[in-house]
TrEMBL record:
NCBIfam families xref list: PaaN-DH, PRK11903.1
Keyword Oxidoreductase: yes
UniProt protein name: Phenylacetic acid degradation bifunctional protein PaaZ
Domain of life: Bacteria
Gene this protein is translated from: paaZ
Domain MaoC-like: 535-647
Sequence ranges assigned to domain Aldehyde dehydrogenase in this UniProt record: 28-439
């Protein structure tokens, strides 16, 4: 019996009554679900996101939002077997579903962890350092990122109903923006099951997530410049949406991931018998058959040196012959079905188009009997790919690739470029010059490039795997969008603002001290104060001490660092940077600590690093030095026990010239501890 898919809007499940689209199983064609959004109030959904979800999310810090992502990941992880069972009907095998379901949950975990580690316990982000804008230092600027106050509309493709949804959801929720997510109808029943779990977990605040099973109605007509549309699917739909009047009129941010004819290039050095040759054959065959080739990152164009064409063809034929499509529910099945019979027809049509420029080297296009959407791999071969166009532009979204020979490396680069922009390319070589020529030739056309060789193949995540920390997207035909890429993906849902003003005002607004802002010296040493009691700007001004030649020599002998600049007057004088022998940079750091440290046990727990260290002027024997230590930033309460404090440290000489500057990072105990 087929299920009627429900949408989740205004924190209620909406059950449609008419206007259904039937969703057939990819295995046997029976209708597994029916979807419709007839009668759904899209304006109310947008209002709910903007008025309820947005404010609730923005009231939370990045760390609180990261905590929710982690809790959702744990919740889904405990229930994923249910998703696996539902997803078999999409034609996906257990291994395919692992990419989709575990991959999606993994992306939630990854963003939870990045949010906690790389973002402050705040509601905004400071980007970069202070920009000095005036001679006297009374006018400065700093870039900040704040969440957009609109809604993120996510429109997903059919091939990854879980991962595609979750890899967009994670960075958006972390940014503090509510989501309306719409899966492709063909596999919407998997996405619905996943959303159902997220909703029943009760982890997200009201209005943070809404779900549309079916068409988007008039949703897009009401988008504003505070909204974002993030789309994955075909170039045709992407073009239609990008040109939607509301989207173009209101400059709605539009992130697109679409058709991509990704290439794999075998280097001229990687002949038969080399590890790279074997890695190449294995990777191409795998990319053609995983998800039955329905991956936006799958290898569509296989570029080989002309001399290797025959050998590669034979090796690929042997590998592909083993990929017999079968029932995805069975463990032994290596390749499942396409998502639907309609999809299979589209693949066959695309192959027919490609055949005007290429011939079939392996496989067949006649469709097997039965109600399922099974389709065996097809390898095409194009003899004159430089003169061809379709093999570089028509994406057969199934287990289909085209082999193309090249004569020179320049030609290989030209061929890759004919794809007019792709998500990913992979290069198989063990030759540094070949790698260099190919990478710098093709990098501007790709969001990701993988160089595979014997040294990394074993641990490589492969050509086809987008990773949360890496950019996923590509220029031109691939849509021009970028997703994930660590925090970059979060920032797509935030507005970058250059904030100008006086150092005091900028420091107060951003909760980060900047040079020129008030730096009151406190009667009590700040090392005696716990995390909560510390105030941004509180400062220690130390007395000064002299650095003698005996200090430098003592340090050199004690540490073993007898570099000539510290120990040999003649050699040091010949160095254009030094007036003669100078103090070690590390000696300056050590003396600085000796000057500013308060030695008694107290709430300061540990020094865990320095950042932005610069030695700006040499310290000669006889010079003196003093230190200003200021609480710069305490925006990261890492645990109930302690918080991270950043101190601005500046070391001056007897002429008040800065000789060194850095950020000192410490952990300080919290009141709770
Ligand atoms: P579509 O572009 O048809 O659909 C993608 C998404 O857009 C679906 O959720 C779809 O919803 C939605 N959509 C379609 N029309 C509109 C509209 N007018 N307004 C709002 N939303 C709309 O792509 P498919 O997923 O069907 O895949 C078709 C082809 O796209 C594939 O054969 C392949 O070539 C390519 N593709 C490329 C990918 C890539 O990243 N490179 C990934 C997946 C597909 P609904 O399903 O309800 O129509």
């Amino acid at each position: 019996m087929s299920t009627i898919l429900k949408s989740y809007v205004e924190d209620r499940w909406f059950t449609p009554e008419s206007g259904f689209a039937d969703i057939p199983s990819a295995i046997d064609g029976r209708v597994v679900a029916r979807a419709s959004t007839k009668g759904l109030d899209f304006v109310a959904a947008l209002r709910h996101a903007r008025e309820v979800g947005g404010p609730a999310l923005r009231a939370l810090t990045f760390h609180e939002r990261a905590g929710m992502l982690k809790a959702i990941a744990v919740y889904l992880n405990e229930r994923k077997e249910e998703l696996y069972q539902i997803a078999f009907d999409t034609g996906a095998t257990r291994r395919d579903n692992w990419i989709d379901i575990d991959g999606g949950i993994g992306t939630l975990f990854a963003y939870a962890s990045r949010g906690k580690k790389e973002l402050p316990s705040e509601r905004f982000v400071i980007e970069g350092e202070t920009e000095p804008l005036s001679k006297a230092g009374t006018f400065v600027a700093r870039h900040i990122l704040t969440p957009l106050i609109g809604v993120a509309v996510h429109i997903n493709a059919f091939n990854f109903p879980c991962w595609g949804m979750l890899e967009k959801l994670a960075p958006t929720i972390l940014a503090g923006v509510p989501v309306i997510t719409k899966p492709a109808t063909a596999t919407a029943y998997v996405a619905e099951a996943c959303v159902r779990m997220i909703i029943e977990s009760g982890i997200l605040p009201k209005g943070a997530l809404q779900f549309i099973a079916g068409s988007t109605g008039d949703l897009l007509d009401h988008l504003t410049g505070q909204d974002v549309v993030s789309f994955t699917g075909s170039a045709d739909t992407s073009e239609k949406l990008r040109n939607h009047p509301a989207i173009s009129r209101n400059a709605v941010r539009f992130i697109a991931e679409r058709d991509s004819l990704n290439a794999a290039v075998l280097g001229p050095d990687a002949g038969p018998g080399t590890p790279e040759f074997d890695i190449f054959v294995k990777e191409v065959a795998r990319e053609m058959t995983v998800k039955a080739g329905q991956k936006c990152t799958a290898i569509r164009r296989v570029l080989v040196p002309r001399a290797q064409e025959e050998t590669v063809t034979e090796a690929l034929k042997a590998a592909l012959a083993k990929a017999v499509p079968g029932n995805p529910r069975l463990d032994e099945t290596r390749m499942g079905a396409l998502a639907s019979r309609a999809q299979r027809e589209a693949v066959v049509e695309a192959i027919e188009e490609l055949r005007s420029e290429a011939e079939i080297a392996f496989g067949r296009v006649d469709i097997p009997d039965g109600e399922g959407a099974f389709f065996a791999p097809v390898l095409l071969r194009c003899d004159e790919p430089l003169k061809a166009n379709k093999v570089h532009s028509v994406e057969a979204f199934g287990p289909v690739s085209t082999l193309m020979p090249y004569d020179t490396l320049d030609e290989a680069v030209e061929l890759v470029k004919k794809g007019e922009g792709s998500l990913v390319a992979s290069v198989y070589t063990y030759d540094a010059d070949v790698a260099d020529a190919l990478i710098f030739g093709i990098a501007p056309y790709h969001g990701r490039v993988l160089v595979l060789d014997r040294d990394c193949a074993k641990e490589s995540t492969g050509h086809g795997s987008p990773l949360p920390g890496l950019v996923h997207g590509g220029p031109g035909r691939a849509g021009g969008g970028e997703e994930m890429g660590g925090l970059r993906g979060v920032f797509h849902y935030m507005q970058r603002t250059a904030l100008q003003g006086s150092p005091d005002r900028i420091a107060q607004i951003t909760r980060r001290w900047t040079k020129g802002a008030a730096a009151p010296v406190t009667p009590e040493h700040p090392f005696k104060r716990n995390y909560e009691a510390l105030k941004i700007g509180e400062t220690v001004q130390t007395p000064s001490r002299t650095v003698g030649l005996e200090d430098i020599e003592h340090f050199a002998h004690f540490t073993g660092d007898k570099f000539y600049a510290h120990m040999d007057e003649e050699a040091a004088s010949a160095n254009p940077f030094f007036p003669g022998r100078v103090a070690h940079g590390y000696l300056i750091l050590s003396f600085a600590a000796g000057l500013f440290v308060d030695p008694a046990p107290g709430p300061l727990l540990a020094n865990y690093g320095l950042e932005n260290l610069r030695f700006l002027k040499p310290v000669s024997p006889g010079d003196s030095m003093r230190v200003r230590l200021t609480v710069k930033d305490k925006r990261a309460a890492r645990s109930p026990e302690y918080g991270e404090v950043r101190w601005d440290v500046e070391v001056f000489n007897q002429n008040d010239e800065t000789v060194a500057r850095y950020d000192l990072l410490t952990m300080s105990a919290r009141t709770a501890a």
